[in-house]
Amino acid sequence: MKTRKPLHPDAPLLLQDHRRPVTRRQMLAQGFLSGVGMVMAPTLLGMFGARRANAQAFVCSVRAGAGLIPFIVIDLAGGANIAGSNVLVGGPGGQLDLLTGDGYSKLGLPNSMTPGQAGQVDAQFGLRFHSDSAFLRGMLSKTSAATRANTNGTVFCARSDNDTGNNPHNPMYGINKAGANGDLVALVGSEPSDSGGNSASPMAWIDPTVRPTKVDSGKDATGLVDTGKLVSLLSQAQAGDVAHAAEQISAIKLAKLAEDPNLEELIHCGYVQTTDLISRFGNPDVVNPALDTDIVGAATSIFTAGEFNTARFQKTAAVMKLVVEGYAGAGTIEQGGYDYHDGTRATGEDRDFQAGQMMGAILEFAQRKAAPLALYVISDGALSSNGMIDNSAGGRGKGQWTGDSSDQAATFMLVHDPRVAGTRPALTTATANQIGYYRPNGSVETASSAVANNVALLAEAAVLNYLALHNRVGDFASVLPMNGLGSGTAFQNLIAFQPII
To answer: How many helices (H) and strands (E) does the chain have?
Structure first.
């Protein structure tokens, strides 16, 4: 019998039940493309015209971090398994309200590995994972016990469409509307899309003025603070003085011109913001992940040199460096290749382990920088198993992934607060590790919550929980005035976390 050669960890997926990928999104989901592209920035005249059309006066401001909790989305393109084999899901009683054997089989777990069996539940991160979850194994490989003890989470049992970027999963703009901002840029993302990732953002939230800046490497991060040759020719202080002088000369010249006041202000702001950039960030090394020994370059670093040179960890390091340290308010990290129902379990286990490493690295970095963090994991749809077992070493005796299935979808949020050792962020109820629930047969109960069958409302729930962490639930209606969740008791059962700020 011919032995099947294992796939390279980043190899594209050739799926028998899918047509040959032709669109960029299909290639991304199956791993034929990584997160590369170009960002089209608005022109000066375009920005001015848009502001004039909306009758809004241009307001000159220097960006400053808002002091809110850093927020990062991991977007697994293609429809990854989240529920059951990774994050445990159950019935109305919470994560450990057991489903039937057939239900767990659909979620990829044989009878010998269901949560009802001894040793199959792991609660080291507060949120319960299957003890052999590939997400969990990846997270454990990158985190310390202290990091795990300061983390808690919740899983949202909610359907989303398969193999599409049209799910309005990504809450980036809502998080920004809640006040998240950065010293350099409001939002970053590893994809050149409106959301910064694969899944879309709710259309009504999109604000072109804070569109995520594409960052998927250290070079992109340092490029945010490119101050030209002035700093290399002079000291940082001298360069700041020169820029300030240019700002003053510009103001004098503009005062003598009969131009539209808004245009004058727009030109003047260019000088003001350049002066501030040079004065505060004249050395771009401050945002370079390759020079942070918490990330790489030391025996105790999160990534080895070999790991750091891979695309998935390059973009993870760049985004987490910017967001956790406050240079960006929130960020999205897209990872392709999660349409892995190729008739094996081994491929999915490998891809999920990589995703777990990304999650763990972000949590560990927040711990080392003594920063709170909210980490949200999404995917476009999900997949199911027909119960056939992959007994290969990589398959680990679990059910093969054989088809797309939006009924098995979920998202989850992990919240980390390192400020009190050994203390997890508190939940609103004893069962708030799970929002909504699954039917005994292993499918999302679409009536279990307001978000269980509505992805746009699911994104609203992510913003709601972000506000709850800041003790600002009362601001929800003003942050998202057109929301569909209502107010007060109408959405109370969607809030998992008590305030940590």
So the answer is: 15, 12
Using an 8 Å Cβ cutoff, are 499 and 464 in contact? no
For residue 167, the model assigns a pLDDT of 96
Can you name the residues that pair with 83 across neighbouring β-strands? 87
- In whole angstroms, what is the distance from residue 217 CA to residue 238 CA? 30
Q: What is the pLDDT of residues 210-262, one digit of tens each?
A: 999 999 999 999 888 754 444 444 344 544 444 445 445 555 555 655 556 65
* Per-residue exposure over 8-47, b if at least 16 CB sit within 10 Å of its own CB, e if not: eebeebebeebeebeeebbbbbbbbbbbeeeeeeeeeeee
In this structure, what are the phi and psi dihedrals at residue 52, rounded to the nearest 5 degrees?
A: -65, -40
Angstrom distance (rounded) from CA 467 to CA 476:
7
pLDDT exceeds cutoff 80 at 429:
yes
Give just the sign of the alpha carbon dihedral 160, 163, 167, 172. positive
Measured CA to CA, the distance from residue 268 to residue 185 in angstroms comes to 19
24 vs 67, which has greater pLDDT?
A: 67
- What residues does 333 pair with on adjacent strands? 74
Is residue 81's pLDDT more than 50?
A: yes
Exposure b/e, 367-391, CB count within 10 A at least 16 = b: bbbebbbbbbbbbbbbbbbeeebbe
Q: What is the largest CA-CA distance in the chain?
A: 86
Structure tokens at 317: 């390091």
Q: Which residues contact 208 (CB under 8 A, 6 or more apart)?
A: 42, 50
Which pLDDT belongs to residue 59? 44
User: How far apart, in Å, are the Cα atoms of 218 and each of 174, 190, 365?
Assistant: 26, 12, 16
Q: 51-60, 69-78, 94-103: which range is least confident on average? A: 51-60
Angle at 70 (CA atoms; ends 431, 412), nearest 5 degrees = 30
Contact 229, 284 (CB under 8 A): no
Kindly give, in sequence order, each residue whose CB lies less than 8 Å from that of residue 445, ignoring residues fewer than 6 positions away: 157, 436, 437, 438, 439, 452
